[in-house]
Amino acid sequence: MEIDPSLLLLLSNLLQLQTYLDPTSDPTSLASPSSFPLLFFALASAISSSLLSSSSPSPSLIPNSLSPLSSDPIYSLDPATRDARFRSLFGLSFSLFNSLLNSLLPHSPFPLHIPPDRALSLALSRLSRGVSSRLLSRTVSLPPSLISRCTHSLTRLLSTTLYSQFVKPFPPSSSSSSSRYTPLPNLIGSIISSPVRLRLAAPDSTLLSPNRPFPSVLLQAVADHRRVFIDACVRAPGSVDPASHLRESSLYQRASSGKLLTEPIVNLHGQKIRPYLAGDSSFPLLPFLLTPFSSSPASSSASHPSYETFDTALIKYQAESIEPAIALLKGRWKILRNLNVGLDHAAQTIMACVVLHNMCQLAKEPEDDGKYLWRDPPETLQPAYSLDSEWSMYNVAESVREALAEDLYDR
User: Fold this and answer.
1) Distance CA 298, CA 302 (A)
2) Domain named DDE Tnp4: which ranges (predicted)?
3) 336, 339, 338, 334: which is closest to 371 by C-alpha?
4) Over the chain, what is the mean pLDDT?
5) Cβ–Cβ contacts within 10 Å for residue 297, how many?
6) Is 57 exposed, middle or buried (0-12, 13-18, 19+ CB in 10 A)?
7) Are strands 266-268 and 271-273 parallel, antiparallel or unpaired?
8) Residue 324: is the preceding peptide bond cis (ω within 30°)?
9) Residue 71 · residue 64 · CB < 8 Å
């Protein structure tokens, strides 16, 4: 055990004081009764201080949870190592972390008694690692309630104020850009309905579905060839089918009323082709949402080679756009694998992760060859059927799909 030199000096001074007060005592003799009180105090002080100093790591190794994040040793790492460490802890590179922080600061997002960068790091730790506030509090020695407040503040701002900044609905360049990735003209994105599991002790029956053994809410998302989300919606519990969720969304309302996905127009065999999305059989066939022929009871792709060619191209685009986008979303932001927030915060947390995903994709954050990919268990799709009010749109969609299949087969 190593004793601090200053404490040795204190011990020496106390012994001299003892000799001055009692000249008859032998300061080197522990048998002298009068020397016991002072000697005991000095030795106890030296030993306790020495034990404290030897059992406590250097202050530089223990970051102060309420100090600015910039005071942590992580900032002194070389750029490549620092980026890797930030991605591991917070899901974002160092530069992207600072960019997000600068976007948030004008809105005074976090509790005033905690530095903004520290608050952001706590919230991102929850979202990227998927841990609860209670579990994270044991690591950072802060109250779970404070961590929850930081998380809710971040997700609220991302899902509202900053949402439109990073989720651009159907930019005009989508159609021309997608032509390099698919032979299907005017295909601008792919849509999916993805369940987000909820960690609830006593879930409501509306959150349960016969297709999955856990409570959930549905995320309806559209992504393009960049694996960037261009639309997202969380409005339905897990018991609702994807077609019904679609019909409740603003995407359906705007597209079916001619306020969305109207230009540019491509002419094929006399048929006007407006921008459209690719979907699976759980969605209805609509002019702005085309599904495979094989999902239609009246069609048989085996008897129509052009149908099979169309289906192959449509399914391939889905496999290269929306499917990896969802896999990356839940891979990077692990909280979406088992959402441990209250039901009243579920939708905003999911939408916040969508925004964070887009930030990563637009900044070209590494996808690490599958490291971040997460695959949900496969589910049996329940084919969707058109409503009576949709029959006119269904007939138009059939003509559009036929024209696209014929054009693709001829080429």
Assistant:
1) 12
2) 214-358
3) 334
4) 84
5) 7
6) exposed
7) antiparallel
8) no
9) yes
Q: Tokens 């990896």 label which residue?
A: 324
pLDDT tens digits, 317-335: 999 999 999 999 999 999 9
**CB hemisphere CA count around 256 (13 angstroms):** 17
- For residue 214, give Cα distances in angstroms to 192, 239, 338: 19, 11, 10
Query: What span, in angstroms and rounded, lies between the C-alpha atoms of 397 and 375?
Result: 31
If one compares 151 and 24, the residue with the highest pLDDT of the two is 151
Of 131, 134, 126, 137, the residue nearest 90 (C-alpha): 126
How many CB atoms neighbour CB 401 within 10 A? Answer: 24
Report how far apart the first and last C-alpha atoms of the chain are (Å, whole number): 83
Nearest to 314 by CA among 287, 278, 282: 278
Rounded-to-integer distance, Cα 357 and Cα 139, Å: 26
Q: Is the pLDDT of residue 227 over 90?
A: yes
Residue 84 CA to residue 142 CA, distance in Å, equals 25
Residue 21, pLDDT > 50, answer no
Lowest-confidence range among 5-14, 50-59, 123-132?
50-59
Strand partners, 191: 222
Which pLDDT value is given to residue 33?
A: 43
Q: In the structure, how many helices (H) and strands (E) does the chain have?
A: 15, 7
> What digits encode the pLDDT tens for the residues 267-312?
998 899 999 999 999 999 999 999 999 876 555 444 688 999 999 9
Distance CA 23, CA 19 (A): 5
Q: Which helix (H) or strand (E) holds 267?
A: strand 266-268
**pLDDT tier at 220, thresholds 50, 70, 90:** very high
Distance (Å) of CA 14 to CA 9, 38, 172, 367 = 9, 7, 84, 66
CA distance 166 to 357: 9
Residues 41-59 pLDDT 10s: 444 444 444 433 333 333 3
